[in-house]
Amino acid sequence: MIFRRKKKGFIVHPTLARLSKKRPILKRHPGKTLSKRIERPVRRARNYTGTGTKLKRLVLLTSGGALLLFVINTLFISSQLNLTTIKVIEDDTEITNHLLTPLFTDLRGSNLLLLNTKNLEELFQQKYPTYESLTIQKSLPHTLIINLTSFSPIATITIESTDSQGIKLTTTSVLNAEGMLIEPEENKDYSALPALVMTSEKKLIGGTKVISKENLAFALEAMQNYEDKFDMKIINSFYLKTERELHLWTDRNFYVWLDLTQNLDTQLNKLKMALPKLNIYNADLEYIDLRISGINGEKVIYKIK
Fold first, then answer.
1. Which CATH architecture has domain 212-305?
2. Which among 138, 21, 12 is positioned nearest to 75, based on CA atoms?
3. Is the confidence at residue 1, as pLDDT, over 50?
């Protein structure tokens, strides 16, 4: 009997055996495989980006805090913005030893940035109304600038007073638009300005308000209007504060009495209408009284010398 030799089979490695097995066919889901493949890298990128953002924020917060502390120290704590210099400029001229300079000495050493200039302006304008305007400006880092504008003189005033010994005094000064006495400038001629005269029980000094703004405006208008209407010069006007009257002294040596509480045009028009009967240019008059109104508002009282 013939025996057949059995053929030796090949020994297959276990790993190869696994590889040789057929893989099952899986059903594909659109986009699912791609999402699984990129999910991990994206998550890693997000984690890395979040860490960088936190570090960046920390650096910015630290830098911002340091800058804020520096600014606060520079502006409010240190002496880098303390007031050391005060400049007073009056009518566009800087005056080194101005009368107002000592009033600001208490502010030296204070923080210039924290000074409330608006409150200071209101305070000094009330205390020194002789100036038409008073503004205070800061000039960093150490200077405070006070700008003053003086009132222009608009009239002269002669004040007749009596001193404590009964001696009569006569002083002439100038008035601003507010009716306040201001110091006249040396060697300056004020003769072209309208002239007022008044009496006072005591001597008045500069800065004193001797006539209201309204009464002063009435007086100036009365002098100008009388000269224009009657072609007669007014030398001066006598202001009676208590009586609320104004007496115009003309170059024909008589007075024209006016009431400060009545309409100026009404009073002057009465005299204009009385001219046919009253010759003010040739009559030897002592005064003309325009204060009293008649039944028709045309009554004119006058006195012959």
1. 3-Layer(aba) Sandwich (3.40)
2. 138
3. no
